[in-house]
């Protein structure tokens, strides 16, 4: 079970169990356990605040109903500053939902490996941006395009001939 706070200081509990997972699958039309497989779905989840909000809503629906909060009020209270924390906690909670200790261990290790790889990619991307390597590559590609298209498309009139 994990707890996160919204921007109004309210605590929300996310507990992954058979019932909450079933309800989340029905609401989302996809299986939250697939997030542990990495790949495109997890990349999208980590970068799409609406998708994260929908998943949180699916797991917190009963609590919101008890508090007489609608989806809109819930979504607006889960500010962008709270999403990164919630993402990590949701993934950890999903890892813990396995009938076998070995399954939990495997899921946990997979998640850590995916997160480590993601961090390496992000660090490398920032390094490339900050070093100017991307800008130099674009300039080089444009220069190559300009040189090759300039010689191939020059008309007799533009080159002084004709």
Q: Which consecutive residue ranges, at least 5 long each, have pLDDT under 50? A: none
SSE pattern, N- to C-terminal: EEHHHHHHH
Cα shape: elongated
Number of helical elements? 7
The quaternary state of the protein chains shown equals single chain
What Rg, in angstroms, do the CA atoms define? 24 Å
Q: What is the total number of structural domains?
A: 2
Main beta sheet strand tally, sense and closure: 2 strands, antiparallel
Overall helicity = 55-70%
Q: How is the largest sheet built, in terms of strand order?
A: 1-2
Structural class: mainly alpha
Report mean pLDDT, rounded to a whole number: 84
Number of extended strands:
2
How much beta, percentage-wise?
Answer: under 5%
Span of the ends, CA to CA: 80 Å
Account of the 3D structure:
The chain is mainly alpha-helical and 162 residues long. The protein folds into two domains: 1-97; 101-148. The protein is 70% helix and 5% strand. The protein has seven helices and two strands. It has helices at residues 18-28, 39-47, 49-66, 71-77, 80-96, 101-131, 133-152, and strands at 2-5, 11-14. Strands 1-2 form a two-stranded antiparallel sheet. Strand 1 (2-5) and strand 2 (11-14) form a beta hairpin. Helix 3 (49-66) packs across helix 5 (80-96) and helix 5 (80-96) packs antiparallel against helix 6. 16% of the residues are buried. The mean pLDDT is 84.
